[in-house]
Design brief:
Blueprint: E1 29-32, E2 37-40, E3 43-44, H1 54-61, H2 70-85, H3 88-93, H4 100-110, H5 119-138, H6 152-160
Antiparallel strand pairs: 1-2, 2-3
Helix pairs in contact: 1-2, 2-5, 4-5, 5-6
């Protein structure tokens, strides 16, 4: 039988926590939490977020994995959003007690990765659809089908509202 933790022995000293412990190493990003700096593939997040389309940011992140050009990503993500929308009935039939994030997890679990497109594109294209649909379902609204001709961020906002 496991002994219950003794509150008298617990410390709230942050130095006793994970300070200085490296949890993982990556070539993709660098985090300087002390100075509030996040670098992704050599660029500050401030130079990407809100300044370039989602597809361009993804292209930057995926530059070492033979990602398609941004214009090809727009079309690929558009197709992935349409494919993901076929899963929405699963989300609608789930328990009303699910949170938006739990409903998104359900969508990802139900998403068929068929090999017709790379898994990274299928999943990246599906997430905006599952987020918007899950949000709308939680509000008692019907999900809105994606428009594959739009950029991902534009379509996400349209599907949300």
């Amino acid at each position: 039988m496991t002994e219950a933790p003794n509150p008298a022995r617990m410390t709230h000293d942050p130095v006793a926590g994970l300070e200085g412990i490296v949890a993982a190493t990556t070539k993709l990003s660098d985090v300087d939490g002390q100075n509030g700096v996040l670098i992704l593939q050599g660029k500050k997040i401030d130079d990407l977020a809100g300044k370039v389309p989602f597809e361009t940011a993804v292209r930057h992140l995926w530059q070492n994995v033979q990602a398609p050009e941004s214009s090809a990503l727009k079309a690929a993500f558009g197709q992935a959003r349409l494919t993901a929308f076929a899963v929405i009935p699963v989300l609608e039939s789930a328990s009303a007690k699910l949170t938006v994030y739990e409903r998104m997890q359900l969508g990802l679990a139900a998403l068929v990765l068929s090999g017709d497109m790379p898994d990274a594109i299928a999943i990246s294209g599906a997430l905006p659809v599952f987020l918007a649909a899950s949000h709308r379902i939680a509000k008692g609204l019907d999900p809105i089908a994606p428009d594959s001709s739009l950029e991902t961020a534009t379509d996400l906002l349209r599907m949300l509202t």
